[in-house]
């Protein structure tokens, strides 16, 4: 524990550093879009802050600038202290999805998922992909204890547990005809299970586009309507079609979009909630955007394009027209200019890489209308138009037509001018009749 | 060829067609629009003749000139008082007669098309009332249509431009860019489109409209030697010689009221 002197020191440190820190972060995020070049000096400043006393705003900024790995390195011991007494239970459900987000979380190297659970003192009650005890038979019979049978485990959780964090991966099938039977779990519609689990949770963290907006499941197709997969708080852009609205689930929802979600986004958001740095639900209106995404990771005032490593080529007007080049990918349909995410500064695969760095245009996988709003992925949005029209072609034809018409008009009024046209000007009266100069 | 130049000074009937401020407005509009179009298309197409930064700087510098010309000077020119005609009602009537496409304009437009194909005379679109000492109507009917669509395009290009300029534009703390984005999201959701994408698309659409309008305005309306007198009027002198009766009709002192409607 701190001595009084130490506390005073911390206080004076806070008082002296906080304004400088704010200004520095503001400058860096505003002018450089959170460029990594100043992270070292910034890290030094953050090290001098007392994590326990850090307010929400500073915490959010630290999270945004440092990333999960640096954040944990910097504050590991503080976090451990803060969590000495509390354990938070987590239920992780999988709906209509491909487990891509779980794979993305497993790929989180620093911290890895085990370290994440340990550092934040989380107890993972249920996670279908990581659990080993599903459907174990003993002497030819299905074991009916919760340790050996996950269906029984889930039943017990639904009966006994309350106030846990629900990590919700994947959409909830509502079809056919609202029965939810297109996704069954242990003989019951997942929709029913989800309703019970969600209503008992203290907060729902929806991870990945399937959970946040139904994503690929709700993309236009012959079966989308029949399957009727619902996101948790939204289906595509429509909040009235979220499963929460349908089932009357009032638990607060935090959306972490992306296909898949970045491990930093998920770990740091859950961490912030668990540590009480984001108080649910009081702080949510201040930290979330209109799609319920944390603004720190999905900044409303900046897009992937702002910090793209290929941005210099855009500024010089150098565009790749075929894949495999090194220039700006805009003309190959890059959706970076429309996508609100910090991919450009945070980066992926151990904070090293980014879709455009790997040669792929951004497909805007974090936006609510994904994938339909991004399709076709490799055609620029101005070429596709919003109702299938190509504005460039329409404008070209119109302007070309206008040029031809102007040419025809000019010929008609000059070369083809006839004497009767000359008479045709509107003056019925001669200049003499109109009187003299005024 | 400007016909009035051929006439001796005694036969000319000179009236003011455009005030000096109207000429300045037109010129500011023209120059700022050309700068906006060239730099805008440079940014969009990635043309190589200028750096991105210079193009973007010129583009943003031209914006206030463009908007001041259209949103302050044009309304001022329309509604400011001249001489005795100072009532609001008079100004509204003046606005309606001078710039709003009406029945008379529709008839003139039909006559213009007929004339193009060799039938009938080219109608007078400029009508001057000598008794009252001012124009009854001044502009070509096509121009009156273009002006309305152009006004809409200017509003569109300005609103969309705010968001493209700064996603977080909030003068005096009023989050205007955020409002525009929210409203666009409402409509974009119907098309399952991204609001920012829609805004860029509309910005581009408005830019193409300005090019189209420019071609029509300069190409069709002005590529006629008889209309060249209006180049001189709008860019330099501001005056029109009514004795040159190309496109002009004058209601004279002795005419009965309503003579205009013969057209």
Name the features:
heterodimer, A: 438 residues, alpha/beta, Rossmann fold, Cytochrome-c3 Hydrogenase, Chain A, domain 2, 3 domains, five-stranded parallel beta sheet, disordered C terminus, B: 263 residues, mainly alpha, Fumarate Reductase Cytochrome B subunit, three-stranded mixed beta sheet, 5 strands, 7% strand, disordered N terminus
Provide an overview of this structure.
The complex is a heterodimer of chains A (about 450) and B (about 260). Chain A is α/β, with parallel strands linked by helices and about 450 residues long. Helix content of chain A is about 40%, strand content about 10%. In chain A, α3 packs across α11. The N terminus and C terminus of chain A are likely disordered. Chain B is built from eight helices and five strands, in the order βααααββααααββ. Chain B starts with 13 loop residues before the first strand and ends in a 12-residue tail after the last strand. At the A-B interface, α16 of A face α1, α6, α7 and β5 of B.
Give the overall silhouette of chain B: elongated
Of all protein chain pairs, which has the greatest interface, and how many residues does each chain bring to it? A-B, 63 and 68 residues
How many DSSP H or I helices of chain A?
A: 17
Task: Give me the side-by-side strand order of the main sheet of chain A.
Answer: 2-1-5-9-11
Number of DSSP strand runs of chain B: 5
Helix proportion range of chain B: 55-70%
CATH superfamily of chain B: Transmembrane di-heme cytochromes, Chain C
CATH architecture call of the largest domain in chain A: 3-Layer(aba) Sandwich
> Which structural class fits the helix and strand makeup of chain A?
alpha/beta
SSE order of chain A in H/E notation?
HHHEHHEEEHEEEEHEHHEHEHHHHHHH
Compute the number of structural domains of chain A.
3
Global structural class of chain B = mainly alpha
Q: What's the total number of strands of chain A?
A: 11
In CATH, what is the homologous superfamily of the largest domain in chain A?
NADH:ubiquinone oxidoreductase-like, 20kDa subunit
The biggest sheet of chain A, with number of strands, parallel, antiparallel or mixed sense and barrel status, is:
5 strands, parallel
Indicate the radius of gyration of chain A in whole angstroms.
29 Å
Question: Which series of helices and strands of chain B comes N to C?
Answer: EHHHHEEHHHHEE
Main sheet attributes: strand count, strand direction, barrel closure of chain B? 3 strands, mixed
Looking at the overall shape, the CATH architecture of chain B is Up-down Bundle
On the 0 to 100 scale, the average pLDDT of chain B is 82
């Amino acid at each position: 524990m701190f001595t009084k002197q130490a506390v005073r020191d911390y206080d004076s440190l806070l008082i002296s550093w906080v304004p400088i820190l704010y200004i520095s972060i503001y400058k860096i995020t505003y002018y450089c879009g959170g460029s990594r070049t100043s992270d070292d000096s910034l890290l030094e400043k953050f090290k001098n802050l007392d994590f326990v006393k850090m307010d929400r705003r500073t915490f959010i900024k630290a999270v945004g600038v440092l990333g999960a790995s640096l954040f944990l390195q910097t504050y590991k011991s503080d976090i451990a202290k803060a969590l000495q007494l509390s354990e938070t239970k987590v239920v992780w459900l999988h709906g209509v999805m491909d487990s891509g987000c779980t794979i993305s979380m497993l790929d989180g190297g620093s911290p890895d998922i085990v370290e994440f659970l340990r550092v934040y003192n989380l107890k993972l009650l249920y996670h279908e992909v990581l659990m080993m005890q599903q459907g174990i038979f003993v002497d030819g019979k299905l074991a009916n204890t919760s340790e050996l049978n996950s269906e029984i485990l889930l039943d017990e959780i639904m009966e006994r547990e309350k106030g846990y964090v629900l990590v919700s991966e994947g959409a909830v099938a509502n079809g056919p005809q609202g029965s939810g039977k297109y996704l069954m779990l242990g003989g019951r519609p997942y929709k029913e299970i989800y309703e019970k689990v969600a209503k008992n949770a203290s907060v729902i963290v929806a991870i990945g586009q399937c959970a946040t907006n139904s994503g690929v499941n709700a993309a236009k197709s012959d079966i989308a309507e029949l399957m009727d997969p619902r996101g948790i708080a939204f289906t595509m852009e429509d909040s009235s079609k979220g499963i929460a609205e349908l089932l009357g689930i009032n638990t607060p929802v935090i959306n972490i979009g992306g296909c898949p979600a970045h491990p930093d986004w998920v770990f740091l958001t859950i961490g912030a909630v668990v540590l009480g740095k984001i108080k649910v639900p009081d702080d949510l209106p201040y930290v979330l955007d209109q799609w319920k995404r944390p603004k720190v990771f999905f900044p409303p005032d900046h897009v992937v394009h702002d910090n793209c490593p290929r941005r210099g080529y855009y500024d010089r007007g150098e565009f790749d027209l075929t894949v495999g080049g090194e220039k700006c990918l805009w003309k190959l349909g890059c959706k970076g200019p429309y996508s609100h995410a910090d991919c450009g500064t945070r980066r992926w695969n151990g904070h090293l890489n980014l879709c455009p760095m790997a040669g792929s245009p951004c497909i805007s996988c974090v936006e609510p209308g994904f994938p339909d709003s991004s399709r076709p992925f490799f055609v620029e949005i101005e070429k596709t138009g919003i109702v299938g029209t190509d504005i460039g072609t329409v404008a070209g034809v119109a302007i070309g037509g206008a040029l031809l018409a102007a040419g025809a008009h000019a010929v008609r009024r000059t070369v083809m001018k006839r004497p009767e046209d000359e008479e045709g000007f509107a003056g019925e009266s001669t200049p003499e009749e109109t009187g003299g100069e005024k | 060829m400007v016909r009035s130049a051929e006439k001796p000074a005694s036969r000319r009937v000179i009236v003011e067609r455009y005030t000096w401020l109207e000429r300045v407005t037109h010129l500011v509009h023209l120059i700022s629009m050309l700068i906006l179009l060239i730099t805008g298309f440079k940014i969009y197409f990635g043309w190589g003749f200028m750096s991105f930064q210079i193009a973007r700087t010129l583009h943003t510098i031209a914006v206030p000139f463009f908007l001041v010309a259209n949103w302050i000077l044009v309304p001022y020119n329309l509604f400011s008082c001249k001489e005795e005609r100072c009532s609001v009602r008079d100004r509204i009537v003046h606005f309606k007669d001078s710039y709003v496409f009406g029945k008379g304009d529709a008839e003139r437009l039909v006559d213009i098309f007929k004339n193009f194909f060799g039938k009938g005379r080219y109608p007078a679109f400029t009508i001057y009332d000598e008794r009252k000492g001012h124009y009854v109507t001044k502009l070509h009917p096509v121009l009156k249509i273009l002006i309305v669509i152009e006004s809409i395009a200017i509003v569109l290009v300005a609103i969309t431009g705010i968001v493209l300029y700064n996603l977080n534009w909030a003068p005096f703390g009023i989050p205007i860019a955020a409002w525009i984005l929210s409203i666009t999201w409402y409509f974009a959701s119907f098309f399952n489109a991204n609001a920012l994408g829609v805004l860029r698309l509309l910005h581009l659409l408005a830019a193409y409209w300005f090019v189209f309008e420019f071609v029509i305005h300069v190409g069709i309306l002005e590529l006629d030697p008889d209309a060249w007198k209006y180049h001189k009027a709008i860019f330099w002198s501001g005056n029109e010689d009514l004795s040159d009766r190309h496109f002009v009709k004058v209601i004279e002192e002795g005419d009965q009221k309503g003579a205009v409607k013969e057209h």
